[in-house]
Write a structure and sequence with these properties.
alpha+beta; Immunoglobulin-like; Four Helix Bundle (Hemerythrin (Met), subunit A); five-stranded antiparallel sheet; elongated; disordered N terminus
Length: 341
């Protein structure tokens, strides 16, 4: 009997338990499920650095903030501005994409009953040490309208130097490595070099030696005077009215010739002095002295008395000068002795 009673009691207790479970499930039907993911609060913000460290100077990394919120709440803070301010304070430089746009990438998504806002900023730095990213504070209003605040924990980013070893200073220079080298040439090379040096010295001395320039023998006085008269006529002074200069130069040619022919300083003498010198030296005969006197007087008149000879008179002066040179030039006999007229 006792065993039957205990069996009924166990059955009754089991039935009561089943009824309690059914009742508890009925009371949950129709009720709204509170938001759970990833936490039990209305808004949660997380931060991390990708990829995981360690990092070196110049490495590119990405700082990510994720904001999980209930769709019913209102976020009043600007997540992008707060994140960029925190990066700037930490000494991390956002990497520009190159198109002038902001490097911060903001995206929105929804997962079950949670609104997810994701902010990603690529950064780099060229400063070693520990960079601390300050917590990012976000202000929002909960479902009851009360103002709330939530912040990320501080993120630490260690930046290591690219120099390996405990001492970044450059190592001291080592002494030069001795390299035994002895310059030597075959004997025949030395002989060739010596021969070339001697030959070069000989050629240099010949090149520097004074060279005897060919000097043409001077023309005889009568040939020189004749050429000067021809050159004077070729200038055409009479045709352009320069009669005075023509007579002056013609007189100088004959004076210079007589001086060279007889060894006189005829250029510095007057016409009268030249006639006396030629007379005293018995260089000319009476007819030649008369012709020379008339020639010099005509040239002096044109030179000093403003007398303009006619064309016939000028031709006569030229013929007189030529005849005087021709009859006074030295004559060479076959024996080589000079005979003076």
């Amino acid at each position: 009997m006792n065993q039957a009673l205990s069996g009924h009691m166990r059955s009754a207790l089991l039935g009561v338990c089943v009824l309690l479970l059914i009742a508890s499930s009925w009371t949950g039907w129709g009720a709204e499920t509170p938001p759970i993911s990833p936490g039990s609060v209305d808004l949660e913000i997380k931060g991390r650095v990708e990829p995981p460290g360690p990092y070196s100077v110049g490495d590119r990394m990405r700082v990510v903030w994720e904001l999980y919120s209930d769709p019913r709440i209102k976020v009043e803070s600007d997540l992008t501005a707060a994140a960029l301010k925190s990066l700037q304070d930490a000494g991390l430089e956002p990497v520009d994409a190159g198109d002038g746009a902001s490097p911060a990438m903001l995206s929105n998504s929804k997962e079950k009953d949670r609104q997810i806002q994701r902010l990603s900023v690529p950064v780099t730095t060229f400063t070693t040490g520990v960079h601390r990213i300050a917590p990012v504070m976000v202000t929002y209003k909960d479902v009851k309208g009360a103002v709330q605040k939530v912040a990320t924990p501080e993120m630490v980013v260690p930046i290591l130097s690219t120099l390996s070893g405990a001492k970044p200073e450059p190592r001291p220079f080592k002494d030069p490595v001795p390299y035994p080298y002895r310059f030597s040439l075959p004997t025949w090379v030395w002989i060739v070099l010596a021969s070339v040096a001697v030959l070069g010295m000989i050629l240099f001395r010949r090149w520097r030696a004074p060279r005897l320039a060919f000097v043409a023998p001077p023309l005889p006085p009568h040939e020189e005077a004749t050429r000067r008269i021809e050159a004077l006529l070729a200038e055409g002074l009479v045709a352009v009215g320069q009669v005075k200069e023509f007579c002056d130069r013609l007189s100088d040619i004959l004076r210079d010739y007589l001086g060279k022919r007889y060894g006189l300083s005829s250029m510095g003498e007057t016409s009268h002095e030249l006639i006396l010198t030629m007379t005293s030296g018995n260089h000319l005969g009476p007819d030649q002295l008369s012709g020379l006197t008339q020639f010099l007087e005509e040239c002096d008149l044109a030179k000093f008395a403003r007398h303009t000879p006619s064309s016939t008179d000028l031709d006569g002066l030229v013929q007189t000068a030529r005849r005087m040179i021709d009859i006074t030039r030295p004559v060479v006999v076959p024996s080589g002795q000079e005979v003076k007229p």
